Amino acid sequence: MNAFSLLWLKNIDPRRYAIARIGFALLLLSHFVHLFPYRDTILSNAGMTHSSAAKIGFYQLTGGTSISLFNYFQSSFEVTIIFIFAIIASLTLAWGKWARTTLFVCFFIQLSFIHRAPASTTGWDSILTNLGFILLFSPLGKDWNPWNLFRQWNKKQLNLKAPQYGLVLIQLQVFIIYWQTVIQKLDDQYWAKGESITYFLLSHHGRFPGSWPVAWHDLLDKINYLTLIIELAIPILLWIRNTRRLGLWIGIGLHLSIAILGINLALFSLTMIVSYLAFIDPWPTPYKLKSSTK
Amino acid sequence: MSLNRKVIIILFSTIISANMLLGIAPLSTNIGRSISKRLDPIRWTIGLGQKWDMFHSIPTHHSLRVYLTANDASGKEYRYGAGLPSLREILPRKLIRYHYTFLRLFNDPLNKSFKESYIESISQTLLKTDPRLRQFTIHFSHGRINTLESIRKGANIATTRVEKFGPYKVQRIMKR
User: Fold this and answer.
1) Which of A86, A101, A254, B6 has most Cβ atoms within 10 angstroms of its Cβ?
2) Is B73 in the A-facing interface, judged by CB distances under 8 Å?
3) What is the pLDDT of residues B131-167, one digit of tens each?
4) Any idea where the domains of chain A sit in the sequence?
5) Of the candidates A107, A180, A265, which has its C-beta nearest B52's C-beta?
6) pTM for the complete prediction?
7) Chain B residue with minimal CA distance to A211?
């Protein structure tokens, strides 16, 4: 088998997919709970915009076709029911029951939200649909619920095998997210001048109000450039087995800092941290067996 | 695993990864714009949009407050919140999506149809709330962060500007 095929088809322990599925399901659960207070205002026809305008607006913004559930279920009551469905589906997905169906339900509700209210979306909304789409067509480790995964965590050498393409695609997506962000930041005057972190802490995102970031600017200026280096390095460190632990510490540290110093950004941090699950391999194939893999 | 399944997996993975890799070209470049123009309609329809600009443009807003004032026939003014359906006060600092929503509606011409629909929805809600109301104005008060240099010299963190949109007529159906 050539290297390109092996990149997608190499067999891995299916419990790795179960970890990714459970993490993603809990992330979706947090996300739908976060969206719940907004549902009436941004998704129902009693709220800010009418679904007919949203269809036109979605086309004007993206060139795409709005296929939102919320174009058909428009009342406050119907929108609430859909959200309750989404919350139940994400819990069921975490458990591994009807995994493909519940993942589709969660994915389609999230996609419907983006199509209905693109003006209200944040960066992590797109991460959720991208990861959801990949997982929808990947093995889901559905034989493993959180309880039996925990009980058999230390069990070695399972006979069940799953091709690794789904996790590789998520890893690639993490690369693209960080690197495209850095490429865009290099073009931005605040990042180029080392002022971005100071402005961020002074902004509506800053958790601790006041002009203190200006007094700390000399340090924050260095953190500005360090952040760019870290964002470039995280996917590489995560990719390489020997540096993975370091990558996890740095990545989780970065996102926890964002969640602590900024308000309303905990879900973004959680989304990025959950995407790291695609890199985690608690049951690595021993090196000596690798050469015999065909 | 059957050969057919292997082929499908490789094909799927190749297409999805190609879509991601094409997403790395920034929209500020010609190639980025060209790829985006061709692929975005499909990408956004199926949920594979590749626009990763989180914080590349750093937030320069310190605060945002949106509210409405409406007048009856005698000219008496009433104040309402901007949150529909109940015209409640909205706090964008607490619920961040409202911050993005209002900024995009009132600062980005691409969101024109959402803005028009919002104005129409306010009009209809005000009419239901109080049929005596005749017109309304949307007040968009936002604090932009001053330069670091001026803050160092003693200026406030931000300068607040109030933009007014309207007056719009309170009526059942709006003319566009």
Assistant:
1) A86
2) no
3) 999 999 999 999 999 999 999 999 999 999 999 998 9
4) 14-149, 165-285
5) A180
6) 0.93
7) B157
